[in-house]
Specification:
Helix content of chain B: over 70%
Number of helices of chain B: 7
Strand content of chain B: under 5%
Largest interface: A-B, 57 and 68 residues
Distance between the termini of chain B: 29 Å
Shape of chain A: elongated
Strand order of the largest sheet of chain B: 1-2
Helix content of chain A: over 70%
Number of domains of chain B: 1
Oligomer: heterodimer
Structural class of chain A: mainly alpha
Strand content of chain A: under 5%
Largest sheet of chain A: none
Largest sheet of chain B: 2 strands, antiparallel
Chain lengths: 89, 213
């Protein structure tokens, strides 16, 4: 996975430095703007039940999501490799 | 690709639930059956779900449009288990993001599961079936992941264009594809690289599964 991390890091650097001067907002926000242009009268009929109180907390919860996923991948791939190794001996 | 809370009119929100709920339910039943069949499948399901969790939390900048978007991470699950189990696993992630991150939403959960969990992976799965014995496992993982990821965003664009056709559906679809599908091209390639790197770790434990298809 070390390879994977360095690949992602390199790609991100490449993408950011090569990019144009736009603001790197989410594509989701751009879609929201497009909806407002196409249907200016549309009112969202439901709003999120809970929103992270700040950007910091939002990034915490995003990191938590990655951590949960990375734990599952790491634990089970590691475990199956260890099992295989043990059964070979 | 998350359609935000309340941003699909009730009729379309319901329609997409009708599409994705059966897939999700069937996927949940199949996942349970797979675990009963062979306990090792529990580990594979966790890895496939974990990959979706990690990848869909990474917002990656895309130089094509100068905005950020996240991969879907559904390629591994699609290869190992097919689209219905992927719909079930994706729904878990989408629910997490809807409830804790205000990313996506409860009313749009059906539409987001349909694109990310079912129709995108279905496209990837068709490619998987077609290429299965013709290319290397890594190449296969790369292509399946790229297709499932990118097609997800095409579906999102179509979903939004159906709900907001404006003057013409085609024009609207092109607008949304200009935002989503274009941004997604490099992001999908990054996901493909990750899937290719991970598959060789997984494949030793699941060779019998993959050859059985």
């Amino acid at each position: 996975m070390k390879n994977a991390i360095s690949v992602l890091f390199l790609i991100s650097c490449l993408l950011i430095t090569n990019g144009n001067a736009e603001s790197w907002t989410g594509a989701d926000e751009k879609a929201e703007e497009a909806i407002k242009q196409i249907s200016p009268d549309y009112e969202p009929w439901f709003s999120p039940v809970w929103e992270p109180p700040s950007g910091e907390i939002e990034s915490l919860l995003f990191s938590l999501q990655s951590a949960i996923g990375a734990f599952a991948v790491g634990y089970f791939v590691g475990k199956s490799r260890a099992n295989k190794h043990a059964s070979n001996n | 690709m998350h359609i935000m809370e309340g941003f699909l009119p009730p009729l379309w929100a319901t329609f997409w639930f009708a599409v994705s709920l059966p897939a999700m339910a069937y996927g949940a039943v199949r996942a349970k059956k797979l675990i009963n069949e062979n306990p090792r499948n529990r580990a594979l399901l966790a890895v496939a779900g974990g990959f979706i969790f990690v990848l869909s939390s990474l917002k990656i900048p895309s130089p094509v449009t100068g905005s950020c978007s996240h991969p879907t991470g559904t390629g591994i699950s699609t290869m190992l288990f097919g689209p219905s189990v992927t719909a079930f696993l994706s729904a878990i992630v989408l629910l997490y993001q809807a409830l804790l991150l205000a990313h996506g939403g409860i009313t749009t959960l059906g539409a987001n599961t349909a694109s990310m969990g079912f129709i995108g992976p279905l496209a990837g799965w068709i490619v998987y079936r077609g290429l299965k014995d013709r290319v290397s496992m890594r190449m296969l993982a790369f292509v399946v992941a790229v297709v499932a990821d990118w097609f997800t965003y095409v579906v999102t664009s179509i979903q939004l264009a159906l709900a907001f056709p404006g003057v013409s559906f085609i024009k609207s679809a092109l607008t949304f594809m200009g935002i989503f599908a274009l941004t997604q091209i490099p992001v999908a390639v990054v996901e493909g690289i990750f899937a290719a790197l991970l598959i060789s770790y997984i494949v030793q434990t699941s060779e019998d599964r993959l050859t059985r298809g």
